[in-house]
Design goal:
Number of strands: 11
Shape: elongated
Strand content: 15-25%
Distance between the termini: 146 Å
CATH superfamily of the largest domain: Glutaredoxin
Oligomer: single chain
Number of helices: 8
Number of domains: 2
Largest sheet: 5 strands, mixed
CATH class of the largest domain: Alpha Beta
Order of helices and strands: HHEEEHEHEHEEEEHHEEH
Length: 271
């Protein structure tokens, strides 16, 4: 009797294992296709960001639509990532610090969103921010639920799949304009600084709705904010305008001398 019972239990266990293996065989995990992911990412450009409610690290909720009025930078990460997401965030921190120094502390906003909703809750996002030394007031680390992140990722053109090492996904930073329309996708952990700051600079220093005085000051700032590849940073360089000023002064002095000489010649002309 005991032998028969053990045989039945073994048979049931074997049947369950075979069934599980068969189920896994017929429902394989999706494979990450980089070309497909890139196409989906690029297709998101031009779309206006919708209303999505997410949670800050202090527990408060914020609607992404409320960031309208300034350029917005969006980065998606997962907090259990040990290399790519931290490196990407640290590099983005360096780039945006440089942008704030040149364009103003409050000239744009940044949000980092955790897409692994099982782990990326407000405390984990806060810990992640501290680990990357991000403390800018206009940079928010946000959490959300499964339905919201799926909808948001679709709008951002952000494709991701679970993998043995965590998640397979593009390393993508999305730049939105003041109307929250997706303007550019920037790829890579350590992308070239001008890829983000040049379009950001043009958005912030847009003069289409300014009076003459404000427009003129913005135009000067636009031309004088230049990238120094040797130092890998943006800086204000007024040498162009100083050179133009000196040139105008020289032309003015030469003109005055010519007029003075012309008058002197007329005064000494025989009658």
């Amino acid at each position: 009797m005991l032998v028969t019972l053990i045989s039945i239990l073994c048979l049931l266990t074997t049947t369950e294992v075979v069934a599980e293996q068969t189920m896994h065989h017929h429902t394989p995990a999706p494979q990450f296709d980089k070309d497909k992911a890139m196409a989906i990412s690029q297709a998101a450009i031009g779309k206006t960001l919708g209303s999505y409610l997410l949670q800050k690290t202090n527990g408060e909720y914020v609607d992404l639509a409320s960031f309208k009025g300034k350029p917005l930078i969006v980065s998606l990460i997962y907090t259990s990532c040990y290399h790519i997401c931290p490196t990407t965030t640290q590099h983005l921190n360096r780039v945006t610090k440089n942008a704030r120094q040149s364009l103003g502390d409050d000239s744009f906003n940044v949000v980092t969103i955790g897409f692994d909703v099982r782990r990326d809750n407000p405390p984990m996002m806060q810990y992640f921010a501290e680990q990357q030394n991000v403390d800018a007031e206009n940079w928010h680390f946000l959490s959300t639920d499964e339905a919201t992140i799926k909808s948001l990722a679709k709008q951002l053109g952000f494709l991701y799949f679970p993998s043995p090492s965590g998640f397979d996904h593009l390393v993508q930073t999305t730049l939105f304009d003041k109307e929250l329309k997706a303007y550019r996708q920037i790829y890579g952990m350590t992308f070239e600084m001008p890829l983000l700051i040049e379009p950001l600079k043009r958005m912030i220093l847009d003069t289409s709705e300014d009076n003459f005085a404000v427009s003129l000051s913005k135009q000067v700032l636009l031309f004088c904010t230049v990238y120094d590849p040797a130092q890998q940073k943006y800086k204000l360089d007024y040498s162009l305008f100083i050179g133009m000023f000196i040139g105008f002064m020289c032309v003015g002095v030469m003109g005055m001398q010519l007029v003075k000489e012309w008058r002197r010649t007329l005064g000494t002309k025989p009658s």
